[in-house]
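Before relying on records like the one below, remember that each one covers exactly one chain. Contacts with other chains, cofactors or solvent are not represented anywhere in the record.
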Amino acid sequence: MDKFTSLRGVAAPLPMINVDTDAIIPKQFLKTLTRKGLGKHLFTEMRYADDGSEIPDFVLNKEPYRKAAILVAGENFGCGSSREHAPWSLLDFGIRCVIAPSFADIFFNNCLKNGVLPIVLPQEQIDALMEDAEKGANAIVTVDLESQEITRPDGQTIAFEVDSFRKHCLLNGLDDVGLTMEKAATVDTYENRQKVEQPWLY
């Protein structure tokens, strides 16, 4: 996965609570095993009318939020079923960071494993960032993972917590496969020795 170091961009406001994974990416789009192409289906039922036309009032159908890199959301974001397609669709749309007062555990961990940074903040700070996000292109937000700080458009900073192991993985672009490949030399050494000591296994 791509490294996450610092992210600077427009933040989209989504002041809704209990946004579940079926709202993020509806079940009919779960047949694919690829991570590509899901961004166009992100929040489908909120973005599109029955005839396929855009619902103009939905935030991601407005400029400049069509290219939002950050999403500021309400509590319990990502609740519902444990579909990994939810962070895939956010990532494919271009959103690499979701900031909310709370997340569903499985969604939270799926985000971290797929290069999306979920940040938990108190409601007061969420409200401030939501106000910033509503200003659109005039309010650019920066998320710095190394320093664990969010810089608001006025220059004020907000500190956030992140698990040290997950931080290491994001900074170095390591998903579960990448973590395993870090041990490739050790695995090769073991297998080469085993081929000599137990050749019948090969």
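The chain has a mean pLDDT of 92.
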